[in-house]
Automatic annotation (TrEMBL):
The lineage of its organism: Bacteria, Pseudomonadati, Pseudomonadota, Betaproteobacteria, Burkholderiales. This is InsA N-terminal domain-containing protein. It comes from the Bacteria.
Amino acid sequence: MIKKIFYKTVYKCRDCGSTSYQSVIERADNGALLPTGQYRCTGCRCIFATVRAWWSPGARPDFQSSRSFN
Ligand SMILES: [Zn+2]
């Protein structure tokens, strides 16, 4: 059984406008279900490496900010 975890946010997907996403969970070699650290939009199903990349249209790897989702 894969337990789907949805996160509601105040942000919106830059592509489809969905306001929720879920963690990407994949089965490891030993059978355990582990989060890959990536996120999937529940609207357009696109996978993003970070929450910021999901909502920020101008996200860049070197973008500097004091805010953190961790
Ligand atoms: Zn989307």
